[in-house]
Amino acid sequence: MAGFKTHITTSSVLGVAYGAGAYTMYDAHWSTCMLGAGLCGVSGMLPDLDSGPGVPLRESVSFTAAVVPLLLIHRWQRYELTPETMVLAGGLVYLLIRFGMGRLLKSITVHRGMFHSLPALAIVGMLTYLICDHENPWTRVFFATAVMAGFGSHLVLDEIWSIDFRHLRLKSSFGTALKFWGDCWWANLATYANVIVLALMITADPAPLPKMPGMEAEMVAEQPEKSKDTPDRNAWRPRSHSPAPEPIF
Ligand SMILES: [Zn+2]
Q1: Cβ distance 46 to 154 under 8 Å?
Q2: Distance between Cα 96 and ligand 1 center (Å)
Q3: What does the alpha-carbon distance between residue 218 and residue 211 come to, in Å, rounded to a whole number?
Q4: Distance of CA 127 from the midpoint of ligand 1 (Å)
Protein backbone atom coordinates (compact mmCIF):
# COMPACT_ATOMS: atom_id res chain seq x y z
CA MET A 1 0.00 0.00 0.00
CA ALA A 2 1.03 3.55 -0.61
CA GLY A 3 2.98 5.09 2.26
CA PHE A 4 2.11 8.11 4.37
CA LYS A 5 4.49 10.38 2.41
CA THR A 6 3.08 9.30 -0.97
CA HIS A 7 -0.45 10.01 0.20
CA ILE A 8 0.28 13.40 1.71
CA THR A 9 2.44 14.49 -1.27
CA THR A 10 -0.24 13.52 -3.81
CA SER A 11 -3.07 15.20 -1.92
CA SER A 12 -0.95 18.31 -1.33
CA VAL A 13 -0.11 18.64 -5.05
CA LEU A 14 -3.79 18.08 -5.85
CA GLY A 15 -4.75 20.71 -3.25
CA VAL A 16 -2.37 23.31 -4.70
CA ALA A 17 -3.78 22.68 -8.19
CA TYR A 18 -7.34 22.88 -6.83
CA GLY A 19 -6.73 26.15 -4.97
CA ALA A 20 -4.78 27.67 -7.87
CA GLY A 21 -7.55 26.63 -10.29
CA ALA A 22 -10.22 28.30 -8.16
CA TYR A 23 -8.11 31.46 -7.86
CA THR A 24 -7.22 31.82 -11.54
CA MET A 25 -10.50 30.66 -13.09
CA TYR A 26 -13.04 31.95 -10.59
CA ASP A 27 -13.44 35.09 -8.59
CA ALA A 28 -12.49 33.36 -5.32
CA HIS A 29 -10.60 35.09 -2.50
CA TRP A 30 -6.99 33.95 -2.07
CA SER A 31 -7.56 32.93 1.57
CA THR A 32 -10.48 30.68 0.56
CA CYS A 33 -8.30 29.09 -2.13
CA MET A 34 -5.43 28.51 0.33
CA LEU A 35 -7.74 26.99 2.93
CA GLY A 36 -9.26 24.70 0.27
CA ALA A 37 -5.76 23.65 -0.82
CA GLY A 38 -4.76 22.94 2.81
CA LEU A 39 -7.91 20.93 3.52
CA CYS A 40 -7.31 18.83 0.40
CA GLY A 41 -3.68 18.21 1.39
CA VAL A 42 -4.48 17.13 4.94
CA SER A 43 -7.44 14.97 3.86
CA GLY A 44 -5.03 12.71 1.99
CA MET A 45 -4.18 11.00 5.30
CA LEU A 46 -7.73 10.76 6.67
CA PRO A 47 -8.63 7.22 5.43
CA ASP A 48 -5.65 5.81 7.34
CA LEU A 49 -7.25 6.92 10.60
CA ASP A 50 -8.21 3.24 10.75
CA SER A 51 -4.60 2.05 10.67
CA GLY A 52 -4.20 2.02 14.46
CA PRO A 53 -1.72 4.06 16.55
CA GLY A 54 0.78 5.84 14.34
CA VAL A 55 1.58 9.05 12.52
CA PRO A 56 -1.65 9.26 10.41
CA LEU A 57 -3.93 8.80 13.43
CA ARG A 58 -1.98 11.12 15.73
CA GLU A 59 -1.52 13.90 13.18
CA SER A 60 -5.03 13.72 11.71
CA VAL A 61 -6.74 13.80 15.10
CA SER A 62 -4.56 16.69 16.35
CA PHE A 63 -5.06 18.69 13.17
CA THR A 64 -8.82 18.05 13.05
CA ALA A 65 -9.15 19.02 16.73
CA ALA A 66 -7.40 22.33 16.05
CA VAL A 67 -9.12 23.24 12.76
CA VAL A 68 -12.76 22.18 13.32
CA PRO A 69 -13.45 24.76 16.10
CA LEU A 70 -12.08 27.50 13.79
CA LEU A 71 -14.24 26.34 10.88
CA LEU A 72 -17.27 26.32 13.18
CA ILE A 73 -16.95 30.06 13.95
CA HIS A 74 -19.28 31.03 11.07
CA ARG A 75 -21.94 28.64 12.37
CA TRP A 76 -21.61 29.95 15.91
CA GLN A 77 -21.93 33.51 14.63
CA ARG A 78 -25.19 32.44 12.97
CA TYR A 79 -26.37 31.21 16.38
CA GLU A 80 -25.27 34.61 17.82
CA LEU A 81 -22.97 33.14 20.47
CA THR A 82 -20.91 35.62 22.46
CA PRO A 83 -17.09 35.54 21.93
CA GLU A 84 -16.65 33.97 25.39
CA THR A 85 -19.17 31.21 24.60
CA MET A 86 -17.34 30.59 21.30
CA VAL A 87 -14.05 30.14 23.17
CA LEU A 88 -15.71 27.70 25.59
CA ALA A 89 -17.43 25.80 22.76
CA GLY A 90 -14.16 25.73 20.77
CA GLY A 91 -12.27 24.32 23.74
CA LEU A 92 -14.94 21.67 24.26
CA VAL A 93 -14.92 20.62 20.59
CA TYR A 94 -11.11 20.45 20.69
CA LEU A 95 -11.13 18.16 23.76
CA LEU A 96 -13.90 15.97 22.34
CA ILE A 97 -12.06 15.42 19.05
CA ARG A 98 -8.54 15.24 20.49
CA PHE A 99 -9.31 12.69 23.20
CA GLY A 100 -12.82 11.31 22.52
CA MET A 101 -12.54 10.73 18.77
CA GLY A 102 -8.97 9.43 18.95
CA ARG A 103 -9.87 6.77 21.56
CA LEU A 104 -13.07 5.83 19.71
CA LEU A 105 -11.26 5.38 16.41
CA LYS A 106 -8.58 3.21 18.04
CA SER A 107 -11.20 0.90 19.52
CA ILE A 108 -13.78 0.55 16.72
CA THR A 109 -11.86 0.73 13.45
CA VAL A 110 -10.30 -2.08 11.43
CA HIS A 111 -7.65 -1.30 8.80
CA ARG A 112 -9.14 -1.19 5.30
CA GLY A 113 -12.58 -1.31 6.89
CA MET A 114 -15.32 1.18 6.02
CA PHE A 115 -12.96 4.15 6.43
CA HIS A 116 -11.59 3.09 3.06
CA SER A 117 -14.86 3.25 1.13
CA LEU A 118 -16.94 5.45 -1.15
CA PRO A 119 -19.69 6.08 1.45
CA ALA A 120 -16.92 7.29 3.84
CA LEU A 121 -15.89 9.71 1.06
CA ALA A 122 -19.48 11.01 1.00
CA ILE A 123 -19.51 11.27 4.81
CA VAL A 124 -16.36 13.44 5.01
CA GLY A 125 -17.73 15.66 2.23
CA MET A 126 -21.08 16.15 3.96
CA LEU A 127 -19.43 16.68 7.37
CA THR A 128 -17.19 19.36 5.89
CA TYR A 129 -20.20 21.01 4.25
CA LEU A 130 -21.99 21.13 7.61
CA ILE A 131 -18.97 22.33 9.59
CA CYS A 132 -17.91 25.04 7.10
CA ASP A 133 -20.96 27.24 7.49
CA HIS A 134 -20.85 30.21 5.12
CA GLU A 135 -23.33 32.67 3.66
CA ASN A 136 -22.28 31.56 0.18
CA PRO A 137 -23.20 27.87 -0.22
CA TRP A 138 -20.70 27.48 -3.09
CA THR A 139 -17.87 28.21 -0.64
CA ARG A 140 -19.10 25.30 1.46
CA VAL A 141 -19.24 23.11 -1.66
CA PHE A 142 -15.68 24.24 -2.50
CA PHE A 143 -14.36 23.14 0.92
CA ALA A 144 -16.34 19.87 0.91
CA THR A 145 -15.00 19.04 -2.58
CA ALA A 146 -11.45 19.85 -1.40
CA VAL A 147 -11.72 17.32 1.44
CA MET A 148 -13.32 14.74 -0.84
CA ALA A 149 -10.58 15.23 -3.46
CA GLY A 150 -7.83 14.64 -0.86
CA PHE A 151 -9.67 11.67 0.67
CA GLY A 152 -10.44 10.25 -2.80
CA SER A 153 -6.80 10.57 -3.91
CA HIS A 154 -5.85 8.33 -0.98
CA LEU A 155 -8.38 5.66 -1.99
CA VAL A 156 -7.25 5.72 -5.64
CA LEU A 157 -3.56 5.47 -4.63
CA ASP A 158 -4.32 2.50 -2.36
CA GLU A 159 -5.99 0.72 -5.29
CA ILE A 160 -3.11 1.53 -7.66
CA TRP A 161 -0.68 0.13 -5.07
CA SER A 162 -2.78 -3.05 -5.01
CA ILE A 163 -1.69 -3.83 -8.56
CA ASP A 164 1.54 -5.81 -8.94
CA PHE A 165 2.78 -4.25 -12.18
CA ARG A 166 5.92 -6.41 -12.29
CA HIS A 167 3.98 -9.69 -12.38
CA LEU A 168 0.84 -8.18 -13.90
CA ARG A 169 -1.46 -9.47 -11.18
CA LEU A 170 -3.77 -8.05 -8.56
CA LYS A 171 -2.78 -8.22 -4.89
CA SER A 172 -5.28 -9.47 -2.30
CA SER A 173 -5.79 -5.87 -1.11
CA PHE A 174 -7.27 -4.89 -4.51
CA GLY A 175 -10.83 -3.62 -4.16
CA THR A 176 -10.58 -2.86 -0.44
CA ALA A 177 -10.25 0.92 -0.82
CA LEU A 178 -12.70 2.00 -3.54
CA LYS A 179 -15.63 -0.07 -2.30
CA PHE A 180 -19.29 0.46 -1.46
CA TRP A 181 -19.40 -2.00 1.46
CA GLY A 182 -17.14 -4.27 3.45
CA ASP A 183 -17.38 -7.68 5.15
CA CYS A 184 -18.70 -6.46 8.50
CA TRP A 185 -22.47 -5.95 8.34
CA TRP A 186 -22.71 -3.64 11.36
CA ALA A 187 -19.94 -1.40 10.00
CA ASN A 188 -21.84 -1.18 6.67
CA LEU A 189 -25.06 -0.41 8.52
CA ALA A 190 -23.43 2.29 10.69
CA THR A 191 -21.74 3.87 7.66
CA TYR A 192 -24.91 4.09 5.57
CA ALA A 193 -26.90 5.28 8.61
CA ASN A 194 -24.36 8.12 8.89
CA VAL A 195 -24.77 8.94 5.19
CA ILE A 196 -28.56 9.20 5.61
CA VAL A 197 -28.41 11.25 8.84
CA LEU A 198 -25.89 13.72 7.36
CA ALA A 199 -27.94 14.08 4.15
CA LEU A 200 -31.02 14.87 6.25
CA MET A 201 -29.01 17.38 8.32
CA ILE A 202 -27.92 19.15 5.12
CA THR A 203 -31.49 19.41 3.83
CA ALA A 204 -32.60 20.72 7.26
CA ASP A 205 -29.71 23.23 7.49
CA PRO A 206 -30.95 26.80 7.96
CA ALA A 207 -28.33 28.18 5.53
CA PRO A 208 -29.31 28.29 1.85
CA LEU A 209 -28.45 25.26 -0.24
CA PRO A 210 -26.38 25.77 -3.41
CA LYS A 211 -28.42 26.45 -6.53
CA MET A 212 -27.45 25.87 -10.12
CA PRO A 213 -26.24 28.93 -12.15
CA GLY A 214 -29.61 29.20 -13.97
CA MET A 215 -31.28 29.75 -10.59
CA GLU A 216 -29.02 32.66 -9.60
CA ALA A 217 -31.77 35.25 -10.03
CA GLU A 218 -33.86 33.30 -7.53
CA MET A 219 -30.97 33.33 -5.01
CA VAL A 220 -30.64 37.09 -5.27
CA ALA A 221 -34.36 37.49 -4.79
CA GLU A 222 -34.19 35.37 -1.65
CA GLN A 223 -31.52 37.55 -0.04
CA PRO A 224 -32.75 41.11 -0.47
CA GLU A 225 -31.23 42.22 2.84
CA LYS A 226 -27.67 41.77 1.54
CA SER A 227 -26.09 45.20 1.20
CA LYS A 228 -24.20 46.28 -1.89
CA ASP A 229 -21.54 47.75 0.44
CA THR A 230 -20.45 44.29 1.56
CA PRO A 231 -19.96 42.30 -1.64
CA ASP A 232 -19.36 38.58 -1.27
CA ARG A 233 -15.61 37.91 -1.35
CA ASN A 234 -16.29 34.73 -3.30
CA ALA A 235 -18.51 35.42 -6.25
CA TRP A 236 -17.62 32.03 -7.80
CA ARG A 237 -18.09 33.46 -11.27
CA PRO A 238 -15.60 32.79 -14.04
CA ARG A 239 -12.84 35.39 -13.79
CA SER A 240 -12.96 37.78 -16.72
CA HIS A 241 -9.54 38.31 -18.34
CA SER A 242 -10.70 40.97 -20.78
CA PRO A 243 -10.15 44.61 -19.72
CA ALA A 244 -13.16 46.67 -18.68
CA PRO A 245 -14.72 48.47 -21.67
CA GLU A 246 -13.93 52.18 -22.04
CA PRO A 247 -16.86 54.45 -21.21
CA ILE A 248 -18.46 55.75 -24.39
CA PHE A 249 -19.22 59.21 -22.97
ZN1 LIG B 1 -5.05 3.67 3.07
Answers
A1: yes
A2: 25
A3: 9
A4: 20
pLDDT digit string (tens) for 121-169? 999 999 999 998 888 888 999 999 999 999 999 999 999 998 888 877 8
Cα 59 to middle of ligand 1, angstroms: 15
CA of 24 relative to ligand 1 center, distance in Å? 32
Q: Find the 44 Cα to ligand 1 centroid distance in Å.
A: 9
Report CA(158)–ligand 1 centroid distance (Å): 6
CA distance 37 to 12: 7
Non-local (6+) Cβ contacts of 174 within 8 A are: 159, 162, 163
Residue 217: pLDDT band by 50, 70, 90 thresholds?
A: very low
Task: Check: CB of residue 157 under 8 Å from CB of residue 10.
Answer: yes
* Cβ-based neighbours of 135, under 8 Å, separated by 6 or more: 74, 207, 232
State pTM to two decimals.
0.80
Q: What's the 195 CA to ligand 1 centre distance in angstroms? A: 21
Which element (helix H / strand E) includes 239? none
In whole angstroms, give the CA distance from residue 140 to residue 201: 14
Between CA 195 and CA 124 the distance in angstroms is 10
